[in-house]
Write a structure and sequence with these properties.
This protein has 70 residues and is an alpha+beta fold. It is built from three helices and four strands; from the N terminus they run H-E-E-E-E-H-H.
């Protein structure tokens, strides 16, 4: 079973997203990732994997905000 340090992630900000709560575990191909409920600066709620939070750190936003930046 995967150990997840929820206290270390909750409240952290990645780009425009702030981690609000642990949402569960996701299996993507052969990898297992924790997933998180995050709130965008615009107020929308999105679910994001730990992999995405750490890989795309400064570029993260909800789909609507990402589209608006293009």
């Amino acid at each position: 079973e995967m150990m997840v340090d929820t206290k270390a992630e909750i409240g952290r900000t990645y780009g425009q997203l702030t981690v609000k709560s642990f949402a569960g575990i996701s299996q993507i191909f052969a990898h297992t990732y924790p997933i998180w409920t995050c709130r965008c600066q615009c107020g929308r709620t999105v679910i994001v994997s730990s992999e995405s939070l750490h890989r795309y750190n400064n570029d993260l936003a909800c789909p609507r905000c990402r589209k608006a930046r293009q």
